Task: structure prediction
Amino acid sequence: MSHDNRHSQSDDNRHARVALLSAGIRCRCPRCGEGRLYDGLLEVRESCEVCGLDLRKADPGDGPAVFIILILGALVVLLAVLVEFWLSPPLWLQAVVWGVFILVAAIGLLRPAKALLIASQFKNQASDSGTVNYDERD
Result:
């Protein structure tokens, strides 16, 4: 066995140990856990700057946004009803507070939610056609 094969096997073992939750929450590469996943706010990089994983194959679609909208919607409705019941603030104040809360929370949660879905796709080799091999180089 050559030195190159042992090196690539140790890289594969190191990559296999990256925790899905850790890579997702930290918005890091799902294979190495080190490279940044995003170029901008939500734009996925073309490849990992550390391990070279082709990130163009990752496509979480609208999944993260749907989860965030549903969770935040339920939470805000519950909190708004409780605040109305306990404090009875003016309607305009409720609209301003909950509007700002929804915007900040949605933007704050969307990055890690999208990263978790990408990491999950990578771990499970998932795609819409079921045939994507994330480790293959084009």
Q: What stands out?
A: The chain has one domain: 3-124.
